[in-house]
Amino acid sequence: MTNVAAGLFVSLGRVQRTHSANVQAAGRKRYETMEIMKADSSHLQDLARLFDLYRQFYECPPDAELASRFLRERMDNGESDIFLARVDQTVCGFVQLYPTFCSVDAVKIYILHDLFVDAAFRKSGVGEKLMNRATQWARENGAGRLDLLTGTTNLAGQHI
Fold first, then answer.
1. Dist. CA 83–CA 20, nearest whole Å
2. CA-CA to 18 of 20 to 30 Å: which in 6, 11, 68, 132?
3. Class assignment of domain 6-13+34-159?
4. pLDDT tens, 95-147?
5. Where are the domains of the chain?
């Protein structure tokens, strides 16, 4: 079991960017052909591969069957919304959102618990585009807040 305690709570009515998404940092490759799309069952094999790598990042043993089964159940039961990033026909990242509610604020919220970019595509803007799409989706679906939860040791994830 991993320690998932670090969090960021973003009120969707007051999200502000402090930098332009078009600014390229030194050493970062930007992909012109990147697509962000809502995942469906036709993407399950590619998503399961990435989800298994994501779980391994958090020190879980490899288990492609578990990854596939977990994602299929979320999709079949409408329990999460998943977006994937594709560069030149290669699925290279995903973000998974879980809809829920905040009783104190009396609003619908989304929990962003899963964000992963394949190591070969990191520092290229893939994670940022996935985050932007997640924020857009939450707003479009009436959420008052988007909560990002990540491992306490995941400094890159906390930076987002």
1. 22
2. 6
3. alpha beta
4. 999 999 999 999 999 999 899 999 999 999 999 999 999 999 999 999 999 99
5. 6-13+34-159
